[in-house]
Design brief:
Elements (H helix, E strand, L loop, with lengths): L1 E5 L9 H7 L2 H6 L2 E2 L7 H14 L7 H10 L6 E5 L20 H11 L4 E8 L2 H10 L6 H5 L10 H10 L4 E6 L3 H13 L12 H6 L2 H13 L5 H15 L2 H4 L10 H19 L4 E4 L2
Parallel strand pairs: 1-3, 1-4, 2-3, 4-5, 5-6
């Protein structure tokens, strides 16, 4: 079976991608693709993975089959898509012991052992540390910022080494990465990539994220324009979306307040420049697919 696990990162889409995927249940069913609701698998997966991670051992005979039977409830499937932004760790543990997702080896290693005989795919959104760190810290309660960072200098945060670690842990898994900042433009492609659908099968929810950051009037105009001027391809569609966002984006949603100790404009510029280099490095990795606008 093809098993796709969207592992976040934390604070990237707040389950919006999963909700958009679930809108296509009927279409997916016809293609043998299942996207169950998170209540069907998150606790089951957490319990199974935590047990394997702490023990370092292999799953008990029949553990995979038992878990999949519970998740799929007997429905046939050739491809299963699951999502959990906190799969590797919850926000307070991202910088545990001065690391960056230090639990990845244990959690992803357990995932590969549990689904050793399957075609495993891992999907991951990365995010500019200039906005990722404040978003994470906003979800941490009763902890001062210095304690939360555990001695990690924001300038040292790099996604490329994290992706390399995932490759080392799961060398046989397909890895798909995209930038959270690009998601409004590539949302439809993400639905197709995770579900495995071809570019010609109609999908629902391709504009779900754009609708959250564009005015109602802008959405009406864009949809009318797309209807009367069908885009020639995905690139053409993205250029149209970008043009309408440029004119109709909701400023209070797109702009983010960065109120953290020591968070200066100079630091934000430094983090952004390093992030761009980081993404370029990911784009050159063998065995990694980087989705870009």
């Amino acid at each position: 079976m093809q098993i796709v696990f969207h592992i976040g990162a934390n604070c990237t889409d707040d389950d919006r991608l999963l909700k958009s995927l679930m809108k296509n249940a009927d279409t997916f069913d016809a293609h043998g693709v299942r996207v169950p609701g998170p209540g069907r698998y998150r606790k089951l997966m957490r319990d199974a993975i935590n047990g394997l991670s702490s023990s370092g051992g292999n799953p008990a005979p029949g553990a995979r089959e038992e878990l999949l039977d519970a998740v799929l409830e007997g429905a046939p499937a050739s491809r299963l898509v699951m999502s959990n932004a906190s799969f590797v760790c919850v926000p307070p543990r991202v910088f545990l012991d001065g690391g960056f997702f230090p639990q990845a080896e244990g959690k992803i290693g357990a995932l590969t052992r549990l689904f050793a005989g399957d075609e495993l795919e891992i999907a991951l959104a990365v995010m500019n540390p200039a906005t990722f760190v404040p978003a994470l810290y906003e979800r941490v309660q009763n902890e001062d910022f210095a304690t939360f960072m555990n001695g990690v200098d924001p300038r040292e945060i790099r996604w490329a080494p994290y992706v390399e670690r995932i490759r080392a842990i799961a060398p046989n898994a397909g890895i798909t990465v995209w930038c959270n900042e690009d998601t409004p433009l590539i949302w439809g492609q993400l639905i197709r990539e995770l579900s495995g659908l071809d570019p010609f099968t109609p999908i629902l929810g391709g504009f779900d994220l754009v609708a959250t950051i564009m005015s109602t009037e802008g959405m009406k105009r864009m949809l009318a324009y797309l209807k009367s001027n069908p885009p020639q391809n995905e690139d053409h569609k993205r250029r149209i979306i970008a043009a309408f966002l440029d004119k109709f984006a909701l400023a209070d949603v797109v702009e983010e307040e960065l109120n953290l100790p020591g968070w200066t404009h100079e630091l934000v510029d430094d983090l952004t420049a390093a992030y761009e280099e980081d993404v370029y490095e990911i784009s050159r990795m063998e065995g990694v697919t980087l989705i870009t606008p």
